[in-house]
Automatic annotation (TrEMBL):
Gene name for this UniProt entry: sufD
Annotated stretches, region: Disordered: 1-26
Protein name from the UniProt record: Fe-S cluster assembly protein SufD
Listed Pfam families: SUFBD_core
Domain of life: Bacteria
Length: 406
C-alpha cells in the first residue's frame, strides 16, 4: 500500500498543496486529495438553524455527502416522530445521570454546532442527558450508553462531564433503525482522563449524523475510538479544543464500508492553547459496489499554540472493485514554534503479496484474507481496552467480510 506524507511548511500557511496527498488507484476506486479550505465552514458556528443556509452539496463541508439520502435532516423537513430511540444508561455507583433542558449551562460548553444538521439537532431535542463523574473519582467499570433505534426520526444531545482528576471509560453503542441527528459533548476537567468508544452498528437503512465536541482541560487526556459498521449514511464530525496547556487527545477510528453505504468521518483538532498534543489514526476497509468512505482530517495550530505536537494518519484498504475512498488530510500552522506536525494518507488494494505468503504456508485463501484484514485493524481494536467490545468487533469484522471472501 503506497503512503504519502507531508512535512508542513511553518508560518501562516497551510501545509502541503498540489500535487494531491495520498495514492490513487485505477478508475474511481479510490481518491485522496489535499483540501485548501477544509477548516473553513460556509457559516460561523451557531445554535440557531436560521444562521445556516440549506446546503446544496457544493459547499466544502457537504461536497462528499449524499444529501438526498439524509431523509430531510439537512433541509428542515425531518420531524421527530415514529417510535424514536430507546436510550439506556448503565453507570457505576457515584456517577450522576440527569435529564436537563436546553437552558442547562453545560450544554454547548464543549462546542457550538458548525453545520445546519447539528444546529437542527440542538434546537429540536426535548431533553438532554448529562452524565457526570465527580472530581477525583476513578471508575473501575465503564459507563455504558445503549442507543437503540426503533424506527422514526429523533434528535438528541448527550453530555459526558468529568471533574478534575476523574477517570472513566464510556461506551456509546448505536443499534437498530433510526434517522438520528445528535450532538455529543465531552467536558474534561483539569487532569481528567476519559476514553470514549462510540460504536455505530446500525441496521442497513439507518441515517446517523452527529457532531462530537471535546473540551480538554489542563493536563487532561482524551481518547476517542469511533467504530462504524452499519447504516445507510453515517456522517460523524469529531472536534477537539483545549481549555489549558498540557492537554492530550488521541482520536482513533475504524470503519468497514459495505456495498451502497456512505460513511463519512470529518475531524478537526483545534490547537488553541500552548503545549498540547494530538494523534489521529483512522483505518477503513471497503467492499462492494458504490461503497463510499470519506475521511476529512483537519488540524489547526493557532498562532498562540506554541509547543504543539501533532500527527494524523488515514489508511484505507479497498477489498473489491466498485468502492471509493476520499481521504483529505489537512494541516494549517500559524506559528513556527512547534514540537512537530505532520500527516499521511494511504489507500490501496488488497495486498496480494501478504495473501501469497500466508497461502504458501498452508493457510486456505479465505482464512488468509481474513487474517490480513484482521491484522490491518488489530492496532485500533486493541485501543478499546474492553475485552467484550473487542471480541464483538472482531466477530463483526468476520461477519462483514463473509461476502468479500466467499
Amino acid at each position: 500500500m503506497a503512503e504519502a506524507q507531508n512535512s508542513p511548511t511553518l508560518g501562516s500557511a497551510r501545509a502541503g498543496g498540489p500535487p494531491p496527498v495520498g495514492s490513487t488507484t485505477a478508475g474511481s476506486i479510490a481518491v485522496a486529495a489535499e483540501s485548501t479550505v477544509a477548516t473553513r465552514m460556509s457559516a460561523p458556528p451557531s445554535f440557531d438553524v436560521a444562521d445556516f443556509p440549506v446546503p446544496h452539496g457544493r459547499e466544502e463541508e457537504w461536497r462528499f455527502t449524499p444529501l438526498e439520502r439524509l431523509r430531510g435532516l439537512h433541509d428542515g423537513t425531518a420531524v421527530a416522530g415514529g417510535n424514536g430511540l430507546k436510550v439506556e444508561v448503565q453507570a457505576p455507583e457515584g456517577v450522576t445521570v440527569e435529564a436537563v433542558g436546553r437552558d442547562d449551562a453545560r450544554l454547548g460548553k464543549a462546542g457550538v454546532p458548525v453545520d445546519r444538521v447539528a444546529a437542527q439537532a440542538y434546537s429540536a431535542f426535548e431533553k438532554a442527558s448529562v452524565v457526570t463523574v465527580p472530581k477525583e473519582t476513578v471508575l473501575t467499570e465503564p459507563i455504558r450508553i445503549a442507543v437503540h433505534g426503533e424506527g422514526g426520526t429523533a434528535f438528541g444531545h448527550q453530555v459526558i462531564e468529568l471533574g478534575a482528576f476523574a477517570e472513566a471509560i464510556v461506551v456509546i453503542d448505536h443499534t437498530g433503525d433510526a434517522v438520528l441527528a445528535a450532538n455529543v459533548d465531552y467536558l474534561l476537567g483539569d487532569g481528567a482522563k476519559l476514553t470514549v468508544v462510540s460504536v455505530q452498528d446500525w441496521d442497513d437503512k439507518a441515517v446517523h449524523v452527529a457532531q462530537h465536541n471535546a473540551l480538554v482541560g489542563r493536563d487532561a487526556s482524551f481518547k476517542s475510538v469511533v467504530v462504524t459498521f452499519g447504516g445507510d449514511v453515517v456522517r460523524l464530525h469529531p472536534r477537539v479544543r483545549y481549555a489549558g496547556p498540557g492537554g492530550e487527545a488521541e482520536l482513533f477510528g475504524l470503519y468497514l464500508t459495505d456495498a451502497g453505504q456512505h460513511q463519512e468521518h470529518r475531524l478537526l483538532v483545534d490547537h488553541n492553547v500552548p503545549h498540547c498534543k494530538s494523534n489521529v489514526v483512522y483505518k477503513g476497509a471497503l467492499q462492494g459496489d458504490d461503497a463510499h468512505a470519506v475521511w476529512i482530517g483537519d488540524v489547526l495550530i493557532e498562532a498562540k499554540a506554541e509547543g504543539t505536537d501533532t500527527y494524523e494518519m488515514n489508511r484505507n484498504l479497498v477489498l473489491t472493485d466498485g468502492a471509493r475512498v476520499d481521504s483529505v488530510p489537512n494541516l494549517e500552522i500559524e506559528t513556527g514554534e512547534i514540537v512537530g506536525a505532520g500527516h499521511a494518507s494511504a489507500t490501496g488494494r488488497f495486498d496480494d503479496e501478504q495473501l501469497f505468503y500466508l497461502m504458501a504456508r498452508g493457510i486456505p485463501e479465505q482464512e488468509a484474507r481474513r487474517l490480513v484484514v484482521r491484522g490491518f485493524f488489530a492496532e485500533l481494536v486493541q485501543q478499546i481496552g474492553l475485552p467484550d467490545i473487542e471480541e464483538r468487533l472482531i466477530a463483526k469484522i468476520e461477519e462483514e467480510l463473509e461476502a468479500a471472501v466467499a
